[in-house]
Amino acid sequence: xxxxxxxxxxxxxxxxxxxxxxxxxxxxxxxxxxxxxxxxxxxxxxxxxxxxxxxxxxxxxxxxxxxxxxxxxxxxxxxxxxxxxxxxxxxxxxxxxxxxxxxxxxxxxxxxxxxxxxxxxxxxxxxxxxxxxxxxxxxxxxxxxxxxxxxxxxxxxxxxxxxxxxxxxxxxxxxxxxxxxxxxxxxxxxxxxxxxxxxxxxxxxxxxxxxxxxxxxxxxxxxxxxxxxxxxxxxxxxxxxxxxxxxxxxxxxxxxxxxxxxxxxxxxxxxxxxxxxxxxxxxxxxxxxxxxxxxxxxxxxxxxxxxxxxxxxxxxxxxxxxxxxxxxxxxxxxxxxxxxxxxxxxxxxxxxxxxxxxxxxxxxxxxxx
Length: 369
Known about the structure:
Radius of gyration: 22 Å
Number of strands: 14
Low-confidence stretches: none
Shape: globular
Largest sheet: 5 strands, mixed
Protein backbone atom coordinates (compact mmCIF):
# COMPACT_ATOMS: atom_id res chain seq x y z
CA UNK A 1 0.00 0.00 0.00
CA UNK A 2 1.63 3.25 -1.13
CA UNK A 3 1.44 6.46 0.90
CA UNK A 4 0.53 9.73 -0.80
CA UNK A 5 1.31 13.03 0.91
CA UNK A 6 -1.27 15.81 1.09
CA UNK A 7 -2.17 18.77 3.28
CA UNK A 8 -5.13 19.28 5.57
CA UNK A 9 -6.25 22.14 3.33
CA UNK A 10 -6.44 19.81 0.34
CA UNK A 11 -7.97 16.94 2.33
CA UNK A 12 -10.69 19.15 3.81
CA UNK A 13 -11.43 20.71 0.42
CA UNK A 14 -12.02 17.22 -0.99
CA UNK A 15 -14.25 16.36 1.96
CA UNK A 16 -16.19 19.61 1.53
CA UNK A 17 -16.97 18.58 -2.02
CA UNK A 18 -17.96 15.06 -1.04
CA UNK A 19 -20.39 16.42 1.53
CA UNK A 20 -21.82 19.04 -0.87
CA UNK A 21 -20.70 21.87 1.41
CA UNK A 22 -18.36 23.54 -1.09
CA UNK A 23 -19.28 23.59 -3.84
CA UNK A 24 -22.94 23.32 -2.94
CA UNK A 25 -24.67 20.63 -4.97
CA UNK A 26 -27.81 20.16 -7.02
CA UNK A 27 -28.55 16.67 -5.67
CA UNK A 28 -32.06 15.87 -4.37
CA UNK A 29 -32.76 15.73 -0.64
CA UNK A 30 -32.45 11.95 -0.37
CA UNK A 31 -29.03 11.97 -2.03
CA UNK A 32 -27.77 14.62 0.36
CA UNK A 33 -28.82 12.42 3.28
CA UNK A 34 -27.29 9.38 1.62
CA UNK A 35 -23.96 11.18 1.19
CA UNK A 36 -23.87 12.06 4.88
CA UNK A 37 -25.07 8.64 6.04
CA UNK A 38 -27.57 10.12 8.47
CA UNK A 39 -28.96 13.52 9.46
CA UNK A 40 -30.03 14.15 13.08
CA UNK A 41 -33.81 14.53 13.30
CA UNK A 42 -34.22 15.64 16.91
CA UNK A 43 -34.72 19.28 15.88
CA UNK A 44 -36.47 19.79 12.55
CA UNK A 45 -34.91 23.23 12.13
CA UNK A 46 -31.42 21.75 12.23
CA UNK A 47 -32.30 18.92 9.86
CA UNK A 48 -33.72 21.36 7.31
CA UNK A 49 -30.60 23.52 7.53
CA UNK A 50 -28.23 20.54 7.34
CA UNK A 51 -29.77 19.48 4.04
CA UNK A 52 -30.86 22.84 2.64
CA UNK A 53 -27.50 24.56 3.03
CA UNK A 54 -26.00 21.79 0.87
CA UNK A 55 -28.42 22.42 -2.01
CA UNK A 56 -28.15 25.15 -4.62
CA UNK A 57 -31.91 25.64 -4.76
CA UNK A 58 -33.32 24.65 -1.37
CA UNK A 59 -36.93 25.08 -0.33
CA UNK A 60 -38.20 25.54 3.21
CA UNK A 61 -39.61 22.35 4.73
CA UNK A 62 -38.23 20.01 2.08
CA UNK A 63 -36.92 17.42 4.57
CA UNK A 64 -40.32 17.12 6.23
CA UNK A 65 -41.93 16.70 2.81
CA UNK A 66 -39.39 14.04 1.85
CA UNK A 67 -40.37 12.05 4.96
CA UNK A 68 -44.08 12.40 4.18
CA UNK A 69 -43.46 11.31 0.56
CA UNK A 70 -41.38 8.30 1.57
CA UNK A 71 -38.14 9.62 0.09
CA UNK A 72 -36.66 9.56 3.61
CA UNK A 73 -37.24 7.46 6.70
CA UNK A 74 -36.75 8.47 10.33
CA UNK A 75 -35.45 5.94 12.83
CA UNK A 76 -33.45 5.76 16.04
CA UNK A 77 -29.87 5.27 14.95
CA UNK A 78 -26.66 7.06 15.94
CA UNK A 79 -26.17 7.61 19.67
CA UNK A 80 -29.72 6.55 20.36
CA UNK A 81 -31.21 9.61 18.66
CA UNK A 82 -33.69 9.88 15.81
CA UNK A 83 -32.06 10.30 12.39
CA UNK A 84 -33.19 10.79 8.83
CA UNK A 85 -31.91 7.98 6.62
CA UNK A 86 -32.42 7.08 3.00
CA UNK A 87 -34.87 4.19 2.58
CA UNK A 88 -32.44 2.52 0.19
CA UNK A 89 -29.41 2.24 2.48
CA UNK A 90 -30.73 3.23 5.92
CA UNK A 91 -31.19 -0.46 6.69
CA UNK A 92 -27.41 -0.89 6.62
CA UNK A 93 -26.96 1.46 9.58
CA UNK A 94 -29.89 -0.09 11.44
CA UNK A 95 -28.32 -3.53 10.99
CA UNK A 96 -25.21 -2.28 12.76
CA UNK A 97 -27.28 -0.67 15.52
CA UNK A 98 -29.19 -3.91 16.08
CA UNK A 99 -26.07 -6.09 16.07
CA UNK A 100 -25.58 -5.72 19.83
CA UNK A 101 -29.08 -7.15 20.46
CA UNK A 102 -29.53 -4.95 23.50
CA UNK A 103 -33.06 -6.25 24.05
CA UNK A 104 -31.48 -9.54 25.16
CA UNK A 105 -29.63 -7.92 28.06
CA UNK A 106 -30.77 -9.11 31.47
CA UNK A 107 -31.51 -5.51 32.50
CA UNK A 108 -33.90 -5.14 29.56
CA UNK A 109 -35.58 -8.46 30.25
CA UNK A 110 -36.05 -7.59 33.92
CA UNK A 111 -37.33 -4.08 33.23
CA UNK A 112 -39.73 -4.82 30.37
CA UNK A 113 -40.50 -8.43 31.29
CA UNK A 114 -39.90 -9.51 27.72
CA UNK A 115 -37.63 -12.47 27.07
CA UNK A 116 -35.69 -12.77 23.80
CA UNK A 117 -38.15 -15.43 22.62
CA UNK A 118 -41.02 -12.99 23.28
CA UNK A 119 -39.78 -10.41 20.79
CA UNK A 120 -40.99 -11.98 17.50
CA UNK A 121 -44.60 -11.96 18.74
CA UNK A 122 -44.20 -8.49 20.28
CA UNK A 123 -42.82 -7.10 17.01
CA UNK A 124 -45.68 -8.68 15.07
CA UNK A 125 -48.19 -7.08 17.43
CA UNK A 126 -46.63 -3.66 16.86
CA UNK A 127 -46.69 -4.08 13.07
CA UNK A 128 -50.32 -5.18 13.24
CA UNK A 129 -51.21 -2.13 15.33
CA UNK A 130 -49.63 0.14 12.71
CA UNK A 131 -51.28 -1.58 9.75
CA UNK A 132 -53.93 1.15 9.53
CA UNK A 133 -51.42 4.00 9.40
CA UNK A 134 -49.29 6.15 11.70
CA UNK A 135 -50.08 6.25 15.42
CA UNK A 136 -48.90 8.45 18.25
CA UNK A 137 -47.03 6.74 21.07
CA UNK A 138 -50.15 6.82 23.25
CA UNK A 139 -52.24 5.27 20.47
CA UNK A 140 -49.61 2.62 19.79
CA UNK A 141 -49.36 1.79 23.48
CA UNK A 142 -53.13 1.49 23.77
CA UNK A 143 -53.30 -0.86 20.79
CA UNK A 144 -50.42 -3.07 21.94
CA UNK A 145 -51.46 -3.31 25.59
CA UNK A 146 -54.95 -4.49 24.70
CA UNK A 147 -53.25 -7.88 24.35
CA UNK A 148 -53.14 -9.62 27.74
CA UNK A 149 -49.47 -10.55 27.20
CA UNK A 150 -48.49 -6.87 27.12
CA UNK A 151 -50.80 -5.26 29.67
CA UNK A 152 -47.86 -4.91 32.02
CA UNK A 153 -46.37 -2.40 29.55
CA UNK A 154 -49.13 0.17 30.07
CA UNK A 155 -47.08 2.10 32.60
CA UNK A 156 -44.04 1.89 30.28
CA UNK A 157 -45.96 3.54 27.44
CA UNK A 158 -47.52 6.04 29.82
CA UNK A 159 -44.02 7.05 30.93
CA UNK A 160 -42.85 7.59 27.33
CA UNK A 161 -41.75 4.02 26.52
CA UNK A 162 -38.09 4.86 27.15
CA UNK A 163 -35.86 2.58 25.15
CA UNK A 164 -38.57 0.01 24.44
CA UNK A 165 -39.48 1.44 21.03
CA UNK A 166 -35.92 1.86 19.77
CA UNK A 167 -35.21 -1.80 18.88
CA UNK A 168 -38.43 -1.80 16.88
CA UNK A 169 -36.85 0.76 14.53
CA UNK A 170 -33.45 -0.98 14.55
CA UNK A 171 -35.14 -4.17 13.36
CA UNK A 172 -37.13 -2.38 10.69
CA UNK A 173 -40.59 -2.83 12.16
CA UNK A 174 -41.36 0.87 12.32
CA UNK A 175 -39.97 4.37 12.03
CA UNK A 176 -41.08 7.81 13.05
CA UNK A 177 -43.73 9.35 10.84
CA UNK A 178 -44.80 12.94 10.19
CA UNK A 179 -45.87 14.72 13.40
CA UNK A 180 -49.59 15.07 14.06
CA UNK A 181 -50.75 18.13 15.99
CA UNK A 182 -47.23 18.56 17.32
CA UNK A 183 -46.95 14.97 18.54
CA UNK A 184 -44.57 12.34 17.16
CA UNK A 185 -46.07 9.42 15.27
CA UNK A 186 -44.79 5.97 14.33
CA UNK A 187 -45.39 4.18 11.06
CA UNK A 188 -44.44 0.88 9.46
CA UNK A 189 -41.29 1.06 7.40
CA UNK A 190 -42.40 -1.70 5.04
CA UNK A 191 -45.35 0.45 3.93
CA UNK A 192 -42.79 2.56 2.06
CA UNK A 193 -42.14 1.02 -1.39
CA UNK A 194 -38.63 2.53 -1.37
CA UNK A 195 -37.69 0.79 1.88
CA UNK A 196 -35.00 -1.83 1.15
CA UNK A 197 -35.25 -3.46 4.56
CA UNK A 198 -32.61 -4.09 7.21
CA UNK A 199 -29.48 -5.44 5.56
CA UNK A 200 -27.58 -8.59 6.40
CA UNK A 201 -24.94 -7.58 8.94
CA UNK A 202 -21.92 -8.80 6.99
CA UNK A 203 -23.07 -6.86 3.94
CA UNK A 204 -23.97 -3.77 5.96
CA UNK A 205 -20.64 -3.49 7.82
CA UNK A 206 -18.27 -3.12 4.84
CA UNK A 207 -20.80 -0.85 3.13
CA UNK A 208 -20.97 1.47 6.15
CA UNK A 209 -17.17 1.63 6.48
CA UNK A 210 -16.67 2.43 2.79
CA UNK A 211 -19.53 4.96 2.82
CA UNK A 212 -17.85 6.74 5.72
CA UNK A 213 -14.54 6.92 3.87
CA UNK A 214 -16.28 8.29 0.77
CA UNK A 215 -17.88 11.14 2.74
CA UNK A 216 -15.54 11.73 5.68
CA UNK A 217 -12.16 10.65 4.37
CA UNK A 218 -9.24 10.81 4.61
CA UNK A 219 -9.98 9.06 7.88
CA UNK A 220 -8.27 6.81 10.40
CA UNK A 221 -9.56 3.52 11.83
CA UNK A 222 -10.32 5.43 15.05
CA UNK A 223 -12.59 7.79 13.11
CA UNK A 224 -14.49 4.75 11.86
CA UNK A 225 -14.72 3.35 15.39
CA UNK A 226 -16.08 6.70 16.57
CA UNK A 227 -18.74 6.80 13.82
CA UNK A 228 -19.85 3.18 13.80
CA UNK A 229 -18.70 2.00 17.22
CA UNK A 230 -19.51 4.86 19.57
CA UNK A 231 -22.31 5.96 17.25
CA UNK A 232 -24.03 2.64 16.53
CA UNK A 233 -22.53 0.23 19.09
CA UNK A 234 -21.42 -1.97 16.20
CA UNK A 235 -18.59 -3.51 18.22
CA UNK A 236 -14.83 -2.97 17.90
CA UNK A 237 -14.02 -6.51 16.75
CA UNK A 238 -16.62 -6.39 14.02
CA UNK A 239 -15.42 -3.01 12.78
CA UNK A 240 -11.79 -4.16 12.79
CA UNK A 241 -12.79 -7.21 10.76
CA UNK A 242 -14.67 -5.12 8.21
CA UNK A 243 -11.74 -2.71 7.96
CA UNK A 244 -9.31 -5.57 7.34
CA UNK A 245 -11.64 -6.96 4.68
CA UNK A 246 -11.44 -3.65 2.81
CA UNK A 247 -7.64 -3.27 3.00
CA UNK A 248 -7.09 -4.05 -0.67
CA UNK A 249 -9.43 -1.17 -1.54
CA UNK A 250 -7.68 1.35 0.73
CA UNK A 251 -4.92 3.85 0.04
CA UNK A 252 -2.84 5.39 2.81
CA UNK A 253 -2.54 9.17 2.79
CA UNK A 254 -0.02 11.17 4.79
CA UNK A 255 -1.96 14.26 5.85
CA UNK A 256 0.52 16.66 7.41
CA UNK A 257 2.23 13.82 9.26
CA UNK A 258 -0.91 11.83 10.14
CA UNK A 259 -1.69 8.58 8.34
CA UNK A 260 -5.26 8.38 7.14
CA UNK A 261 -7.06 6.41 4.44
CA UNK A 262 -9.30 6.85 1.44
CA UNK A 263 -10.80 4.36 -0.97
CA UNK A 264 -8.40 3.69 -3.83
CA UNK A 265 -10.97 4.83 -6.39
CA UNK A 266 -11.08 8.26 -4.73
CA UNK A 267 -7.34 8.90 -4.57
CA UNK A 268 -6.98 10.62 -7.96
CA UNK A 269 -9.91 12.90 -7.19
CA UNK A 270 -8.34 13.82 -3.84
CA UNK A 271 -5.00 14.59 -5.45
CA UNK A 272 -6.65 16.80 -8.07
CA UNK A 273 -8.59 18.86 -5.51
CA UNK A 274 -7.44 22.40 -4.89
CA UNK A 275 -7.64 23.90 -1.39
CA UNK A 276 -10.51 26.31 -0.79
CA UNK A 277 -11.23 29.19 1.54
CA UNK A 278 -14.99 28.80 1.07
CA UNK A 279 -17.09 30.19 3.92
CA UNK A 280 -20.18 28.28 4.97
CA UNK A 281 -22.78 28.55 7.72
CA UNK A 282 -23.74 25.16 9.13
CA UNK A 283 -26.19 24.29 11.91
CA UNK A 284 -25.39 22.86 15.30
CA UNK A 285 -24.47 19.16 15.40
CA UNK A 286 -24.01 19.16 11.64
CA UNK A 287 -22.46 15.95 10.26
CA UNK A 288 -19.47 18.02 9.13
CA UNK A 289 -18.31 18.22 12.76
CA UNK A 290 -20.11 15.21 14.24
CA UNK A 291 -18.87 12.73 11.61
CA UNK A 292 -15.20 13.00 12.63
CA UNK A 293 -16.12 14.12 16.16
CA UNK A 294 -15.50 17.42 17.88
CA UNK A 295 -12.21 16.08 19.32
CA UNK A 296 -10.75 16.22 15.81
CA UNK A 297 -8.76 19.45 16.00
CA UNK A 298 -8.24 19.54 12.25
CA UNK A 299 -11.93 20.53 12.08
CA UNK A 300 -12.73 22.02 15.48
CA UNK A 301 -10.10 24.19 17.19
CA UNK A 302 -9.77 23.22 20.88
CA UNK A 303 -10.93 26.69 21.98
CA UNK A 304 -14.29 26.13 20.26
CA UNK A 305 -14.79 22.46 21.09
CA UNK A 306 -17.14 22.95 24.05
CA UNK A 307 -19.42 25.28 22.10
CA UNK A 308 -19.51 22.97 19.08
CA UNK A 309 -20.11 19.87 21.21
CA UNK A 310 -23.00 21.68 22.89
CA UNK A 311 -24.63 22.36 19.53
CA UNK A 312 -23.55 25.87 18.53
CA UNK A 313 -24.27 26.82 14.92
CA UNK A 314 -20.88 27.10 13.21
CA UNK A 315 -19.07 29.14 10.59
CA UNK A 316 -16.72 26.94 8.56
CA UNK A 317 -13.82 28.41 6.58
CA UNK A 318 -11.99 26.02 4.30
CA UNK A 319 -13.49 23.21 6.36
CA UNK A 320 -12.30 24.48 9.75
CA UNK A 321 -14.67 25.98 12.32
CA UNK A 322 -13.81 29.68 12.50
CA UNK A 323 -16.68 30.95 14.62
CA UNK A 324 -20.31 30.57 15.59
CA UNK A 325 -23.55 32.25 14.56
CA UNK A 326 -26.92 32.96 16.10
CA UNK A 327 -30.17 34.32 14.64
CA UNK A 328 -31.70 37.15 16.64
CA UNK A 329 -34.88 38.47 15.08
CA UNK A 330 -33.84 39.63 11.59
CA UNK A 331 -30.08 39.54 12.22
CA UNK A 332 -27.48 36.79 12.06
CA UNK A 333 -24.84 37.52 14.67
CA UNK A 334 -21.45 36.00 13.87
CA UNK A 335 -18.86 35.52 16.63
CA UNK A 336 -15.56 35.30 14.76
CA UNK A 337 -12.79 33.32 16.44
CA UNK A 338 -9.84 32.91 14.07
CA UNK A 339 -6.37 33.95 15.20
CA UNK A 340 -5.95 36.78 12.70
CA UNK A 341 -9.34 38.24 13.64
CA UNK A 342 -10.23 39.10 10.04
CA UNK A 343 -13.70 37.99 9.06
CA UNK A 344 -14.65 37.60 5.36
CA UNK A 345 -17.60 40.00 5.49
CA UNK A 346 -18.76 39.66 1.88
CA UNK A 347 -18.68 35.85 2.05
CA UNK A 348 -20.60 35.89 5.33
CA UNK A 349 -23.23 38.19 3.84
CA UNK A 350 -23.66 35.81 0.90
CA UNK A 351 -24.15 32.91 3.31
CA UNK A 352 -26.69 34.89 5.32
CA UNK A 353 -28.62 35.50 2.10
CA UNK A 354 -28.74 31.72 1.50
CA UNK A 355 -29.88 31.18 5.07
CA UNK A 356 -32.64 33.77 4.59
CA UNK A 357 -34.08 31.71 1.73
CA UNK A 358 -34.34 28.64 3.95
CA UNK A 359 -35.82 30.53 6.88
CA UNK A 360 -38.22 32.41 4.63
CA UNK A 361 -37.44 35.92 5.83
CA UNK A 362 -34.89 38.67 5.15
CA UNK A 363 -31.78 38.60 7.32
CA UNK A 364 -28.71 40.77 7.69
CA UNK A 365 -25.24 39.84 8.93
CA UNK A 366 -23.82 41.38 12.10
CA UNK A 367 -20.22 40.72 13.14
CA UNK A 368 -19.84 40.54 16.92
CA UNK A 369 -16.40 41.33 18.30
